[in-house]
Amino acid sequence: MPSKKKVAILYGGRSVEHGVSVNSARNIYEFIDKDLYEPLPIGISESGQWYLTQGVSKDITLGKPLGLILDTRNSGIILLASGDRIKMDIVFPVLHGTDGEDGSIQGMIKAIDLPMVGTGVLGSSLSMNKVVAKKMLKEHGVPVTKFLAYRYSDRSKISFESIVNKLGMPFMVKSASLGSSVGVSKVSRKSEFKKAIEDSFRYDNELIIEEFIQGREIECAILGNNPPQASNPGEIVISKNYEFYTFDAKYVDPEAVTIQVPAKLDKAVSQSIRKVSIKAYQALRCEDFARVDLFLTRRGKVYVNEINTIPGFTNSSMFPMMWKERGISFTELITKLITIAFERYHNNKRVERGFESNLKF
Ligand SMILES: Nc1ncnc2c1ncn2[C@@H]1O[C@H](COP(=O)(O)OP(=O)(O)O)[C@@H](O)[C@H]1O
Ligand SMILES: [Mg+2]
What we know:
This protein is α+β, with helices and mostly antiparallel strands.
């Protein structure tokens, strides 16, 4: 029997979504097929230190401190105390938000030439920034909401009246590069405006303001590369107590939402959502997997809201649920992700790194 592949599960991270990542990673650690893989839990503390932990634990700093070996012939991670190299065959970043989902960690793993599950540098950073992502999606003919974008340094130019003129009211104010609804507010009257802007800038140097779409919240799970497959769409039905899908509605209040997988949709609408989701995934250079979030209005208009390149794997997360509906268990899903990632890594070896020339240096 071939030896088990060592899968480093990276979790935690310097992000407002640290806790969500711990919950996601706990499930991956529990459900990964232990006959095929040996999971190595690597926690990143809230201040950014790396530790080899005993299972996946919220007490990351109780683990053994780790460092990186920046040498592609002998790349990887070392135990700081002993200097021993920790061997791994592939890295699975189960990190949400800043550093983990935005291409930073992906770039580091690429630079030390380790195989990795999920979207690489370009797709991660394109998808993470809601302004850049919307511009790219528009360019590819994927329907998105009307929006305006502002940098912190230009905050004095933000005018409530001009926003209302362009987008109407209510509108949404969101940090450009965050997730889990942190830094997201709905503005329905002028008195809510200042706080919404301050809140978004608190977490980011850029914000996006969007017209408010009154619609159903639909999500579609994508898996694979050539070609990617789309799940049946699912729906998050949010209780009337919430104005939108807030952090509390997502993770704290178990009564806040009802999840419907598959969503009750006409066949044609479901088909068009799957098609547009794949288009969005490809437009944003996503790899291996992602979750595409959309709005569907009463009149049947579809908008792509955002793409999550590392969607949640918590107990209430849609991505695994949507594949379960297609007959793929959590364990099989993890195996598929790792297999797809290895395949992509090997296919990419086709690309030459060097270039023979007469350049003198
Ligand atoms: N343009 C919009 N119209 C209506 N609701 C929105 C809009 N943008 C965001 N929302 C609401 O806010 C939630 C969080 O916004 P989203 O863009 O998905 O950010 P995050 O990355 O934090 O999940 C969405 O799930 C939705 O409920
Ligand atoms: Mg979202």
